[in-house]
Amino acid sequence: MHAYISLKIDSTAQAIPLQYNHFIQSAIYAALPQDVAKRYHDKGHTAGGREYKLWSFSRLTGKFIMDKASGKIAFPEGARLVISSPDMEFFLSMVNNLLTKSNIRLGEVKMKVTEVRLEEQKVEDSLLVVRTLSPVVTYSTLLKPEGGKYTCYYQPGEGEFNKLITANLRRKFEALYDKKPAEGDVRVIPLDRPRLHVMSYKGTVIKGYTGRLKLQGPRELLQIGLDTGIGSKGSQGYGCVEKIK
Prior knowledge:
The protein has helices spanning about 20-30, 35-40, 90-100, 160-175, 220-230, and strands spanning about 1-10, 15, 45, 50, 55, 65, 70-75, 80-85, 105, 110-120, 125-130, 140-145, 150-155, 185-190, 195-200, 205-210, 210-215, 240-245. By secondary structure, it is of the alpha+beta class. Helix 4 crosses helix 5.
């Protein structure tokens, strides 16, 4: 399920930081009932000893004014946010509270929720074409020969990218349904030249890619990717996608 949320910002409000993902993440938790928010924040769903939140969100879209010198961005005519998840308890709790409170706060900036449109996007077969709404992040943590660790990020089209995407989707499916998915790998084919984004989340540098992608593989894994986002760090605002009809 996808929620398309329209936001109106007071014209007198200050701009928000360019690296605003953690503000949106905090706003989503704030939109949940306290007990539900605590459960998702502390644990979420588990599979293979790992925890998964099973939701993702987009970048803010709309006409904007960016000030690189101050590291701020403003949306004078309003913005749109997309949140996706297959977990209906999380989804309905969040949407109901958003409509009841009718506003969210991103740091010091208060935004009015003017519309929430729900859309159920279905995968019909073993082929899915999507556009990324936030950068897809896929990486491995490797050891340096001289000691220490470093992070290697992968882009769509690389073999390791497909391998990690498949493993991630299989674990998410198991976390949600408590059973193993059908056999088969997911292959991700870029339809455009992937665009690299170098971002920061609470001071940590993260690299991800955007563009149109064609996914081939077991239908149930493609559905999980469409609903939870593809790649890592979905609940931090990465890997959110929507179906291209």
